[in-house]
Write a structure and sequence with these properties.
Length: 196
């Protein structure tokens, strides 16, 4: 079966690439900031206006399509090519949801390692309330492979807290937004800040 990196390469080879919507307002200002799984730069483009930002993604096609003037690194969130404590802040925006359970644990450990003591982790990830929960073939608990081959995991809030238990929680909320697809259907994500 095609691996996840190959699936993402294929997605980003499409001329009208994914993840084009408006960038969320970055809550992390200033300092040295690492965005993990930066894709084609939706969030990174906002980050570079106020921080010394670095983007990392495993898809070369995504990085090629990224118009942002920032250092871009091809790499895996499971094994970061940075020294311990290199960053004041790390973003994991809609990345943990595309990993299997053991990979989510590895990515959380790497984010912790790459942050300086007191540094901040910003997390956004789909929750079990999201309208797409349950779509596709279940490959692990609350984790589904959709028709395009991409893995989607949907979190409970306490599950995310447990994953990030080495950090101190500064805030964690669930944001929901109605969608145009069906009455009552929502896009739902957990949005949190955690301190190392
Ligand atoms: C939904 S996109 C999010 C893009 C961006 N963070 C944003 O919020 O706009 C998920 C990104 O994570 C990347 N990704 C998934 N697994 C990865 C891994 N193991 N290592 C590095 N990047 C990964 C994908 O290539 C994709 O660009």
């Amino acid at each position: 079966m095609e691996g996840q990196r190959e699936v993402w390469e294929r997605e980003y080879s499409i001329p009208d690439p994914l993840w084009k919507g408006p960038a969320p307002e970055p809550v992390l200002n200033g300092g040295r900031v690492l965005e993990l799984g930066c894709g084609n730069g939706k969030t990174l483009s906002a980050l570079v206006r106020r921080s010394e930002a670095v983007g990392l993604d495993h898809s070369m096609n995504a990085l090629r399509a990224c118009p942002v003037r920032a250092p871009l690194v091809r790499g895996d969130v499971l094994r970061l090519p940075f020294r311990d404590g290199s960053f004041d802040a790390v973003l994991l925006h809609h990345v943990l949801q595309h990993l299997m359970a053991d990979e989510r644990a590895a990515a959380a450990a790497e984010a912790f390692r790459a942050l300086r003591p007191g540094g901040l982790l910003s997390v956004r990830t789909f929750s079990v309330q999201d309208m797409r929960f349950g779509k596709g073939a279940e490959v692990e608990n609350h984790t589904f492979r959709r028709g395009n081959g991409i893995i989607y995991h949907y979190f409970e809030a306490d599950e995310l807290r447990a994953l990030l238990s080495r950090f101190e929680e500064a805030s964690l909320v669930e944001e929901t937004a109605p969608t145009k697809f069906a009455k009552g259907s929502v896009r739902a994500e957990l949005v949190g800040i955690f301190r190392r």
